[in-house]
Records
---
Amino acid sequence: MTKHMIEAGKPATKLKSEALAVLLERGLVHQSTDLEALDKRLNDGPITAYAGFDATAASLHVGHLMPLMTLRWLQRLGHRPIVVLGGGTSQVGDPSFRNDARPLLEERQIAANMATIRRSVERLVDMDGTEGALLVDNAEWLNEFRFLEFLRDYGSQFTVNRMMTFDSVKSRLDAQMPLTILEFCYMMLQAVDFLELAKRHDCVLQVGGSDQWGNIVNGVELGRRDGRKLHGLTVPLLTTANGSKMGKTASGAVWLHPEHLSPFGFWQFWRNTADADVGKFLRLFTELPMREVERLSELQGAELNEAKKILATQVTAIVHGPEEARVALEQGDALFSGDAELTEPTHTMALSVLAEGVGLLELVVASGFAASNGEARRLVEGGGVRLNNRVVDDARRRISSGDLGANDRLSLSVGKRCKALIGFE
């Protein structure tokens, strides 16, 4: 199957569908199984498209915003999105581009994770009305299969030879790391998801991250064997201007759910965007008209800080709602002018991590104030980091429970504009 690679922000010529043109212009398309055929299908009339998310954590993170923004745009332009929560596949765990197997979760934990993820999804896509987005659990069909029945119906549709050509599998084998049969079968399960959605809801498009390419292709090919023309589309890997993976920190991810990262902590993450990334993130994560995106992208110096505030407020409004975005903006303005101090935690960490101590550099990265330990080290050694309002210039410093103030909180600031209040629970 041909892999169509797309240069972000460079619309292909002779596009017929508004939806694909918008997605390309916003930089949300990386690969497509058949770009011309997908363009024609989108132009012929409304389609149903899906993206799936396993419930391996209690919240989605900013990396998940890319496929969710793609579904959001498709819905705005007249198409119907389906969000699949992996109550079935989460029992296995996607091995794509991992060096080890994911921990197996109990069904009770998966159900709890799905409940919190649902609350974030409901903000990002409109689920109201008969034509609203659908939220489904793939356990509905995967849990119904009996082992021998599954092998008979689908095992013959996949070859080990083909599956070993996908980068997600090759990377594990090249690293000489074990790949269990359980993990190897994951891509079969995701392919069955696509076929089931096609049968149940006439779904013809799967959207996913670039690491899902092999899994998506398997679904498209399984649909072809069933006489269906299905399509796959991946979004780019989310990276910053310096090439690092965006949204991943030393202690985890930049979460979308407010119980894991406060709306102000989320707002501040975007407010601290590197200058070189502002235009890119305005395209990807806001719904501002492209003319306004281009205007803001051209700002320089102090004016660019205003563009960062607009970016932060727009993304926070999409993820947490307009009122939370307004409050975050007001709090940010007050903090950066020196007129206020934080009263509620912007980040939370487990109290247990303090038993062996948390590195200061790790804390700076986890708070979103540096992209790497090296950058954090330079900030610390330059005297720009404060713990509980005191300068700390020892990059080897470790944080223990004795450093905590009232209510098990720790104040961290970098320079005059970056402030966090970290709660330990």
---
Amino acid sequence: MARRLTGKLVIASHNQGKVREIGELLAPYGVEVVSAGALGLPEPEETGSSFVENAELKAKAAALAADLPALADDSGLAVDALGGDPGIYSARWAGPGKDFAAAMALVHDKMGDHPDRSARFVCALSVAWPDGEMVTVEGTVEGTICWPPRGGNGFGYDPFFVPSGASLTFGEIEAAAKHAISHRADAFRKLVAACLA
């Protein structure tokens, strides 16, 4: 078992939706969270070639800069008909203004009338301590792409992703229901077993 995570933890993200969601997942464990944005930490360049590499890079940078344990998430949407794109570039497809309506339209346009609508959200979570210790886990949730997008809950690509076995998008279901089945929840369960249980 890895080192137990206690006290203050930096969420290595400037994405408020992601910070809020991770904070809600951590709430039962008595961990005090602060975002990298609130601490004024710079966002490192994501040069990894996978979700895991990018999560580890961000966690390590935040842990060293803040001298506190840091949790980083690298997640995105992988669409089978697009060979796994947008993948690690999911946020970049939304452009500098983080326009996910445009990003969803871009995915839809690139898919065209392809019959395979299957996709998955992938989430890598990495915790780094300032002394270099690190724990990384990965979670997924399978589903399909729908068009047009539906719902105003969640963030990012949530309004056009329908998880397997459901009829509502992540943008339509309540936060608690999403937390129970999402890629982040899947990864988080593994993280809890590794360093919060």
---
Amino acid sequence: MLVHPQFSPIALELGPLAIRWYGLMYLVAFVLAWTLGRWRIRHGKTALTARDLDDLLFYCVLGVVLGGRLGYVLFYKPAYYLVHPLEILEVWHGGMSFHGGLIGVLLVMALFARKRGLRFLQVGDFVATLVPLGLAAGRLGNFINGELWGRPGTVPWAMVFPQAGDGLARHPSQLYEVGLEGLLLFAIVWLFASKPRPVGQVSAVFLMGYGLFRFLVEYTREPDSFLGVLAAGLSMGQWLSLPMIIAGAAMFVWARRGGDTLAPRRS
């Protein structure tokens, strides 16, 4: 039986400044997105320019942080934050929702596309290739913090998370998410996007892939104590992932029938 290493949440201290691992993982995520985005631009895989990428990442930072926080508030603990509204601003205490962050990113992408005269799905196909490795970094941050642990399990790599307070060996579901929603999804989306595709299909593959992997991992992830399992024995994460799978499948078929391939690089 393994025991979680109990890493310090602080990665680096510079005098009074403490850099936490979770915040560092967000920085890693955006550096990876910028690096991958520059590669795709340099190799003519997108119509976006380097300036577009820089501005888009700034928009996406706002979308992730604001959408992720508000998504957590609305999807997971609306009654609590209705009574304690000022705590919505206390993001350093944790509480971010991927699905909320996704909605935030979609909104800022729509705004960005409109301002730059680009098609929304054209921007979406570009962003979809950049996201999975960032997700992997975020889940690695969850593991380092010893949070969002899995359900009790008997697999050889089951791990005791002292923060759970019960001494039970549990699935390291954060690492499952690193592997599935991060590394494997990145490989699938990146390879699929390596050839010209109808506009919207890369986004569709991302939505289907993430939704499916998250739905499966949730069977090994401990549901939030204040929610538990919901209707049909599914967790909130699973219920939020189902629309992603359905929307992705519908978008994939729609894009294939439309037959509109990716536009060439703009001057």
---
Amino acid sequence: MAKIESIPVLYVRGSNNYDIGYTIGKTFKFWIKEYLETSNDVERYRNFYDTEHGRAIVNTYMQNGSRSHPNIMSEISGLANGVGASFEDMFLLQIASELDFCHLRQISKPKDDDDVIPKGCTDVLVNLKDYRIMGHNDDWTEDVAARVYIVHVTIENQNGGVKEQFVSYCYPGYLPGFCFGMNESLVVTLNTVCPREANEYGTPLLICLRSLLGCSTVEECVSTMKNEPYGCSYGMNINVGSINSSDMCSMEVSPYKGKTQVIVKKASQEFSLENVCYYYHTNIYKFSEVDESTNGTGSRLREKRIAEMTSPKCVYDVRVILGDTVDEKEPIYIEPHPNHVEPHVKTSATAIFDISQRKLHVYKSNPKSSTPVLCLPFF
């Protein structure tokens, strides 16, 4: 049988977050329930929640989310009801980063920091006057990669106008915003990073990331992640490209003394000793002083390989970088292999945001040698 590639896209319009979450949950109910029932990660989250210590931490995160973003908590509730799952199970997915890379680690106390490895992702930013491109490899395990989908969401205000509108690549059961996405003003891609500590009294990371899909400027993105006065509970690398201006940057978010630190590295169209027009990021902090829970071996190998390659000048050059498989231990484009740093991880999709041409291309196979399975125009 010939190879088949597909990725479902759901177009949904509604007047509130609950209905949006419910429709997404109901549409992808089979995949999400299957993931909840079979994922080893979900089982670990449930076991943590079943302990007195774990329940107290999770309940605190729930209270934080309800206090700062009740609309998004309503979206999680709608998602759970659409699937026919408990709110608790659905919420546990939304704090997966905090659990995986901080709280569960504190319990298991691995001897080697590299026992805690983020699943991956690689980003390439090109901000030239003739070519403005953001490319992203989304890397995760097969149980997630086999159940991904894209949502095209419109939330209306009381007068029938557009209150919020975005496109987001989604993992099963996770809120939109945890992967790559865009709205009429911004392109956003993400890389997992792993600070050793979490801010238990901040808003869960994924709730803040979901809020990014409503931002219009880089400054709004910074403010959204700082989330004052509550702060954001965990860290993330966020890459942002403005569709209607030359702004492009990479942001590193981290908990800092009960608040949230956001440091911005700009990719400027005007090259100088201080400015760069080409930038890349993986799963380690590059310009923030943060105590991390992983040595980032795989990320460093990917960055080393990118540094050896020719600086990209066009879309095809970005595809070549993101499709590179030269490194035998941690290639940039990842297929599961026993010799890899994380043997079961794969690149589930590659996104090429051609900002100059206002098009999103999504590849399910190696972007260096394949055609996109999906092309979407910008808003």
